[in-house]
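It is worth pausing here to work through a concrete case rather than discussing structure prediction in the abstract. The textbook approach is simple: state the sequence, then state the predicted structure, then interpret. We follow exactly that order.
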Amino acid sequence: METSASGLVWAWTMAILFKALPFRLLAEDKYNTSTGKVDQTVSVNGNVVSTLSTSSGQGGLGWGTAMECQQANCGTVPTHHWLNTKLTMSAPNPNYKNTLRLNGASGNLVTADGGTTWTVDDITINQYTFT
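Step two, the predicted structure:
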Protein backbone atom coordinates (compact mmCIF):
# COMPACT_ATOMS: atom_id res chain seq x y z
CA MET A 1 0.00 0.00 0.00
CA GLU A 2 1.13 3.53 -0.68
CA THR A 3 0.37 6.86 0.98
CA SER A 4 -1.19 9.63 -1.10
CA ALA A 5 -0.82 13.36 -0.61
CA SER A 6 -3.98 13.17 1.52
CA GLY A 7 -2.20 10.83 3.93
CA LEU A 8 -4.34 7.86 2.93
CA VAL A 9 -2.92 4.64 1.67
CA TRP A 10 -5.26 3.19 -0.87
CA ALA A 11 -5.69 0.76 -3.68
CA TRP A 12 -8.72 -0.58 -5.47
CA THR A 13 -9.65 -3.36 -7.81
CA MET A 14 -12.83 -3.98 -9.73
CA ALA A 15 -14.18 -6.28 -12.38
CA ILE A 16 -16.41 -4.70 -15.02
CA LEU A 17 -18.97 -6.86 -16.75
CA PHE A 18 -20.76 -5.82 -19.91
CA LYS A 19 -23.51 -8.44 -20.06
CA ALA A 20 -23.85 -7.97 -23.82
CA LEU A 21 -20.13 -8.67 -24.37
CA PRO A 22 -18.30 -11.92 -23.60
CA PHE A 23 -15.36 -10.60 -21.54
CA ARG A 24 -14.36 -9.54 -18.05
CA LEU A 25 -12.29 -6.44 -17.49
CA LEU A 26 -10.22 -5.99 -14.32
CA ALA A 27 -8.84 -2.58 -13.35
CA GLU A 28 -6.38 -2.18 -10.49
CA ASP A 29 -5.30 1.25 -9.25
CA LYS A 30 -2.63 1.93 -6.62
CA TYR A 31 -1.13 5.17 -5.36
CA ASN A 32 2.64 5.14 -5.88
CA THR A 33 4.55 7.20 -3.28
CA SER A 34 7.81 7.10 -5.21
CA THR A 35 6.24 8.90 -8.19
CA GLY A 36 3.24 10.63 -6.58
CA LYS A 37 1.05 9.14 -9.29
CA VAL A 38 -1.71 6.57 -9.59
CA ASP A 39 -0.59 3.41 -11.37
CA GLN A 40 -3.35 1.55 -13.21
CA THR A 41 -3.27 -1.90 -14.77
CA VAL A 42 -6.17 -3.08 -16.93
CA SER A 43 -6.66 -6.74 -17.86
CA VAL A 44 -9.20 -8.43 -20.13
CA ASN A 45 -9.88 -12.10 -19.42
CA GLY A 46 -6.71 -12.23 -17.30
CA ASN A 47 -4.38 -10.66 -19.90
CA VAL A 48 -2.87 -7.21 -19.22
CA VAL A 49 -3.94 -4.88 -22.04
CA SER A 50 -3.01 -1.49 -20.62
CA THR A 51 -0.88 0.20 -17.99
CA LEU A 52 -0.97 3.87 -17.10
CA SER A 53 0.66 6.12 -14.54
CA THR A 54 -1.05 9.47 -14.06
CA SER A 55 -1.21 12.36 -11.64
CA SER A 56 -4.90 12.73 -12.46
CA GLY A 57 -7.40 12.08 -9.70
CA GLN A 58 -7.99 12.92 -6.05
CA GLY A 59 -5.56 10.49 -4.45
CA GLY A 60 -8.18 8.38 -2.69
CA LEU A 61 -10.16 11.28 -1.23
CA GLY A 62 -13.40 10.09 -2.78
CA TRP A 63 -14.81 7.50 -5.12
CA GLY A 64 -17.53 7.39 -7.72
CA THR A 65 -18.70 6.59 -11.21
CA ALA A 66 -18.73 8.69 -14.36
CA MET A 67 -19.13 8.12 -18.07
CA GLU A 68 -16.28 9.67 -20.04
CA CYS A 69 -15.63 9.93 -23.75
CA GLN A 70 -12.36 10.95 -25.41
CA GLN A 71 -13.80 11.09 -28.93
CA ALA A 72 -16.13 13.47 -30.74
CA ASN A 73 -18.98 10.94 -30.88
CA CYS A 74 -18.98 7.91 -28.55
CA GLY A 75 -22.57 6.85 -29.19
CA THR A 76 -24.34 4.76 -26.56
CA VAL A 77 -22.62 2.79 -23.81
CA PRO A 78 -24.75 -0.17 -22.68
CA THR A 79 -25.72 -0.84 -19.08
CA HIS A 80 -22.77 -2.43 -17.32
CA HIS A 81 -21.67 -3.49 -13.85
CA TRP A 82 -18.68 -2.97 -11.59
CA LEU A 83 -18.45 -6.28 -9.74
CA ASN A 84 -16.56 -7.31 -6.60
CA THR A 85 -14.94 -3.93 -6.13
CA LYS A 86 -12.57 -3.64 -3.18
CA LEU A 87 -10.94 -0.51 -1.75
CA THR A 88 -8.25 -0.79 0.93
CA MET A 89 -7.13 2.12 3.12
CA SER A 90 -4.04 2.36 5.33
CA ALA A 91 -6.15 3.50 8.27
CA PRO A 92 -9.84 3.10 9.05
CA ASN A 93 -12.11 5.75 7.57
CA PRO A 94 -15.64 4.93 8.78
CA ASN A 95 -17.12 7.86 6.81
CA TYR A 96 -15.60 6.99 3.42
CA LYS A 97 -19.01 5.77 2.19
CA ASN A 98 -20.12 9.42 2.25
CA THR A 99 -17.70 10.20 -0.62
CA LEU A 100 -19.46 7.83 -3.04
CA ARG A 101 -20.92 9.66 -6.04
CA LEU A 102 -22.94 7.40 -8.33
CA ASN A 103 -23.88 9.84 -11.13
CA GLY A 104 -26.83 7.84 -12.46
CA ALA A 105 -25.63 4.45 -11.20
CA SER A 106 -26.80 2.34 -8.26
CA GLY A 107 -24.92 0.44 -5.57
CA ASN A 108 -23.27 1.07 -2.23
CA LEU A 109 -20.00 0.79 -0.32
CA VAL A 110 -19.97 -1.41 2.77
CA THR A 111 -17.32 -2.12 5.38
CA ALA A 112 -17.06 -4.93 7.91
CA ASP A 113 -13.89 -3.71 9.62
CA GLY A 114 -14.67 -0.12 10.61
CA GLY A 115 -13.54 1.48 7.36
CA THR A 116 -10.19 -0.04 6.39
CA THR A 117 -11.63 -2.29 3.68
CA TRP A 118 -14.63 -1.23 1.60
CA THR A 119 -16.44 -3.53 -0.82
CA VAL A 120 -19.12 -3.22 -3.48
CA ASP A 121 -20.76 -6.39 -4.75
CA ASP A 122 -22.38 -4.71 -7.76
CA ILE A 123 -22.60 -1.15 -9.02
CA THR A 124 -24.95 -0.97 -11.99
CA ILE A 125 -24.15 1.82 -14.41
CA ASN A 126 -27.13 2.61 -16.58
CA GLN A 127 -27.04 2.89 -20.35
CA TYR A 128 -25.72 6.28 -21.39
CA THR A 129 -25.86 8.08 -24.74
CA PHE A 130 -23.30 10.79 -25.41
CA THR A 131 -24.70 13.82 -27.20
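Step three, interpretation. The longest strand covers residues 80-89. Residues 107 and 123 are 4 Å apart (CA to CA).
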